[in-house]
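Appendix B. Chain record.
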Amino acid sequence: MKTIENPNIRAIVEFIARQMDGEQVPPSNSAELASLAASVGAIQAHASTPELRELGLHAIGAVIARVRAAMGAEKALRDFIQPGGDHA
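Structure tokens predicted for this chain:
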């Protein structure tokens, strides 16, 4: 993933990526969730088009990366279990 300079956008995109990787949402009283809420609040307070566009592009990038990885793993598994493959 491309380096994200805006710390609020980075926090949100990293949260999205962790959720897609199967991580649990942090507990409601945790510092991690409070930090995420602060990042979301800061983005909402600014509501600048360039900032929202950057958030959207990075979020979509995280989704694409996870889908691409899942599809690659699925293809590798399918190639392995199909008859006639190059495996023993």
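Further analysis of this model is presented in Appendix C.
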